Amino acid sequence: MRPFHHRSAAGLLLACLAVVGCETQYGPERSYGLRKDPVIKNGQKMAEERPLPDRPGQLPIASIKDLTEQEDKDHPFYRADPAKRKEFLQQDLVRDVNMIAASDRKILEETLEKLFGKPRDPKVAVTDKDCNVDEESAKYLQVEPATLARGSVLYREHCLHCHGVTGDGRGPTGKWVNPHPRDFRSGLFKFTTVNRVEKATLKASRGDLARTLRQGVEGTAMPSFGLLTEQQIQDLVSYVMHLSIRGETEIRTVLGAFDAAKMEMVDEDGLEEYVNKASRSVVKAWKDSQATANWIPIPAMAFDPNDVANKVKLQESVQRGKKLFEDKKTNCNGCHVNYGRQAPYKADDWGTLSRPRNLTQGIFRGGRRDSDLYARIHSGIVGSGMNNFGKDLKSDEIWDLVNFVRVLPYPEMRKNMEIEIPE
Ligand code: HEC
Ligand code: HEC
Q1: What's the gap in Å between 131 CA and the centre of ligand 2?
Q2: Confidence of residue 21 (pLDDT cuts 50, 70, 90)
């Protein structure tokens, strides 16, 4: 019996090694490649075409009606109605990267690989002394090759099936969940504490991404990775930044270096230089996002809402918050119609139909601490269509809204705070 056991174990091991999934690392020849899917310039307008949210198994844009004439028949964009496709291109709502000449595509791919490496040997080798993006920055951003190599292995294990090899949000399971996994290439992150009221170009702090990883995104398929070690979380954060910087560099080049109608090069300095330029400005935005001076200032609430002695103060604050919520000045109720219970579908920047949150359910994707909600209202929820209020509202007013939003889901608490909403 024993030899038989040995043989079957060895056979199993061999079979396992033959299957890619058993490996934790990518093969050395595997590259990120160029994107094939169209760059969506105006997701909100694109999605107007779509009466219904994405069905399971369907990605944004994929519901545009079918077309047959293109090579890649499986690609959602090419299955679109040819007239529609032409119209989208003419209105410059979308850029078709496949229209770029093969020679330019080659330069683009090679330059991106020079800067960002391959999945097995990822890097952010953006160098430029003028804007202080150099080795020092790689250290500052924590995107050195050794960190990224560890992050890449972890990413493949834990994230890839949803977020995809390039971070396009199109991993094999990605299209079956809605909201879809984030497409990191757009460089848009929803749940952040960077002060977008002051600087709209800010991305996310490392702390923001780490919080998302530890807690997951409540009410969505994004799981919590709270059982990973702190080192692993940090390595993953670095790798997400790498994918995002790479993807956004590519997008900015596609949008900036080529004309809309024919996707011919329009930048005079040459494509390679354009890619380098784009990469520097993306890295700069990520650097800026790590500076504490660019984070949302969150002053303490005027009183401790958890102290029962402050019940009357809290009541007054919640009541002011309710008023503000319904006020024309904020128009919260304009999107969160009937406190979100009857919110209409709206398009987000990825071209997906989504809804302003039903705030009577008490599900907060970006975290449920007071400070999380403060940050959402102050700087908005990027890409989702929720604008920011940090300019129009005083910090006390934002705290009033936070207090109201926290009470809203719970009938007993509403009674306690002496506010009423229609059933
Ligand atoms: C089961 C699918 C799934 C897996 C696995 C998954 N994610 Fe996500 N992730 C999502 C979804 C869905 C969202 C979008 C939630 C939303 O839009 O509100 C998301 C969003 C994110 C965001 C964006 C947060 C923001 O502020 O916009 C980050 C960063 C992220 N995931 C990182 C990761 C990393 C890193 C891993 C692996 C350790 C991972 N995810 C694994 C589904 C997944
Ligand atoms: C222009 C439309 C719009 C307006 C105005 C708006 N919101 Fe939102 N809000 C949204 C959308 C869309 C989401 C869902 C975002 C997402 O995809 O995660 C949202 C989500 C939220 C969330 C959930 C945050 C989380 O972590 O899940 C809160 C809280 C919120 N809004 C409060 C407010 C308050 C308070 C106001 C007024 C000061 C307001 N909103 C005004 C569109 C809007």
Answers
A1: 35
A2: very low
